[in-house]
Amino acid sequence: MNDKHVPMSWDHPEVYRYEETIALKIPGYAHLYEMTDRLIAAHLNTTPWNGTDRAAELLIVGAGGGQELVTLGSRHQDWALTGIDPSARMLEIAKARVERAALSPRVSFIHGTVGQLPRGHEFDAATCLLVLHFVRGLSQKKDLLCQIARRLKPGSPFCLASINGEPGTAAFGMQMQAWRSHMLDNGISAQEWERFAASIGRESDPVPSSSVLELLDEAGFIQPIRYFGSYFVEAWYAVKK
After folding, report:
1. Where are the transmembrane segments (predicted)?
2. 74: burial class by Cβ within 10 Å (0-12, 13-18, 19+)?
3. Which of 64, 168, 205, 214 is the most exposed place for a label (fewest CB within 10 A)?
4. How confident is the model at residue 118 (pLDDT cuts 50, 70, 90)?
5. What local confidence, expressed as pLDDT, does residue 49 receive?
6. Do 182 and 23 touch, CB atoms closer than 8 A?
């Protein structure tokens, strides 16, 4: 998949490079996951550094790649994690990372979508990191968030991260130039950058931050707090009503 005009497929063999390249592309990538972990831990009244974790079940939406599973699972021995992803290849990456981290007994994998999860079982927390911008259209984005909300206990924490913005504006263009500089300086090839830039609005569907907040509200999440920002990547912490 070397042509910048070839659409991305999450089942293409090139996704095996995801773990290698994503941290080079997003400044503060590891911090996003560490901060997500600490926010959920604080909400669930757990303190992994002094061994007072309480048992909790977490839903990891878009778990392919495995970063959330490894970060959260390694820090909390009493957390059980369910990772769901529609890409079989991305789940293979996640499974391999989980096995290397010796976390397999506490991690379950589901190949599919949130809407395919059994109704009735409610989780203590959920994450959906770097997924929403791949869902096209506000109605589909809202549906995903509603599906997640339905599978959370009232009062549960939810962490959401996505690429947000308004393509075509001057501010968007300036940010893209700055992000390009960052990626090239960190070893991402010009060809890969061009493919990424061409994918905005074609393979991904970023929306303004204000729209993300509206979607969270409409899906039944309250008290949203922006806790991470890196060029267009923003993360929000919210609570299920």
Report:
1. none
2. middle
3. 168
4. confident
5. 47
6. no
